[in-house]
Amino acid sequence: MKNILIIGATGQIGSELTMRLRNEYPGGNVVAGYIKGAEPKGALLESGPAHEVDITNAAQIAEAVEKYNVDTIYNLAALLSAVAEAKPQLAWKIGVGGLYNTLEVAREKNCAVFTPSSIGSFGHNTPADKTPQDTIQRPDTIYGVTKVTGEMLSDYYARRFGVDTRSVRFPGLISYTTPPGGGTTDYAVDIYYAAVKGETFKCPLKPGSFMDMMYMPDALRAAIEIMEADPAKLVHRNSFNIASMSFDPEIIYAKIREHIPEFKMEYELDPLRQKICDSWPNSLDDTCAREEWGWRPEYDLESMTVDMITHLREKFGITAPEVAHAMA
Predict the structure, then answer these.
(1) 100 given a catalytic annotation
(2) Catalytic residue, candidates 34, 68, 74, 143
(3) Which of 82, 137, 238, 311 lies 20 to 30 Å from 156, alpha-carbon distance?
(4) pTM here?
(5) Strand order from edge to edge, sheet including 165-166
(6) What is the distance between the alpha carbons of residues 22 and 237, in angstroms, rounded to a whole number?
(7) Boundaries of every domain in the chain
(8) pLDDT tens digit string along 93-128?
């Protein structure tokens, strides 16, 4: 039975992954690592152990690993793309320096390590459509630079020291549970919030801005499945393309209007996010993930939209119009 430490457990992905892992394993086996000022609350705190773990402090990582007999580390500490551009030094300190600390502890304590990469690891010179698993990676952002460096460093520790490192390149992640955190793809979360609340959505990206996206339940499942995969079947490690859906603002807007016809969207472009978006792929080829560890997405744009709208209405206590009509 695995003993798991999640570094960044109160973040955008970590808060949901922690709860998902506690459903897969005994809650006491999954430790929520947090930093001061971002302590776990509610179910995240009550469902299992928590320990202060600042990824820039190797001693804290080692302390948590020893205390809870950890054998698997999920390293989710990072600044998201737009935030990282505003704080490049901190992005490097967390994304690369923090990963180095984690890998060193893993080497010494014999732990497996999952560190997510991203579509941000690609750049303008990468083939934009059906981006191959193995291709040029020359990102234009510090976020992307840290992700490419992380992929290479993780592969090095696997080859040189035998550390069991694994990773996936996450597309933009869409969730009703945690609010957006400053990522370029977060408009695809904001748009659902605006639609459900009856607000006009101000879209920061222009029409035709295609990016790969994924519903959070699929992303969480991928993070777990890659760590459960038979290592003998893995040709790649860091990092696998995974894909689910690709759309631009016009397509997601039209899909939401199928369910909320009165919804309105206007364009209010954000030059920084547009520049970042333009450097990322339109879509990924995830053949290697499918062949090497059986990756398959479960959600498409339609099923995700229905689920997002349903859960956000529940979250905000908003009654669906068709339900209200039926009750009248």
Answers:
(1) no
(2) 143
(3) 82
(4) 0.93
(5) 50-52, 30-34, 4-7, 72-75, 112-114, 165-166
(6) 25
(7) 78-328
(8) 999 999 999 999 999 999 999 999 999 999 999 999
